[in-house]
């Protein structure tokens, strides 16, 4: 199997994680549709805020899943392939983007 190099579109994601990500995305889509309906129906702001917090937490969970996959597969393979300067720059960008 060819390992994608930084900048290539193809990424390595395990079948198990792909399935889990798909399930999480389906739930998140449902949450977002529910929030839209709540806003359209003029539901109480506090109720909408609770659902927004829930959707944000679901997105954080998905981010953690994809981040773990990235670190275990994509970044690890790039480091092993000696693309060190590029991968370290990419890792720093990813870490700072999500460390807010």
Strand content: under 5%
Shape: elongated
Quick check: average pLDDT?
86
CATH homologous superfamily title: Metal-sensitive repressor, helix protomer
- Compute the number of helices: 3
Q: State the major sheet.
A: none
Structural class: mainly alpha
> Regions with pLDDT < 50 over 5+ consecutive residues?
1-6
Topology:
Elements: H1 15-40, H2 45-80, H3 84-98
Helix pairs in contact: 1-2, 2-3
Describe the structure.
- The chain is mainly α and 100 residues long.
- The protein has one domain (15-98): Up-down Bundle (Methane Monooxygenase Hydroxylase, Chain G, domain 1).
- It is built from 3 helices and no strands.
- It has helices at residues 15-40, 45-80, 84-98.
- The radius of gyration is 18 Å and the shape is elongated.
- The two termini are 35 Å apart.
- Residues 1-6 have low confidence and may be disordered.
């Amino acid at each position: 199997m060819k390992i994608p190099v930084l900048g290539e579109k193809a990424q390595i994601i395990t079948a198990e994680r792909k399935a889990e990500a798909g399930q999480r995305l389906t739930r998140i889509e449902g949450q977002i549709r529910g929030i839209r309906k709540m806003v359209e129906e003029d539901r109480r702001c506090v109720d909408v805020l609770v659902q927004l917090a829930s959707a944000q937490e679901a997105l954080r969970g998905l981010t953690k899943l994809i981040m773990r996959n990235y670190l275990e597969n994509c970044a690890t393979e790039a480091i092993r392939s000696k693309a060190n300067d590029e991968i370290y720059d990419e890792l720093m960008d990813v870490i700072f983007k999500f460390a807010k």
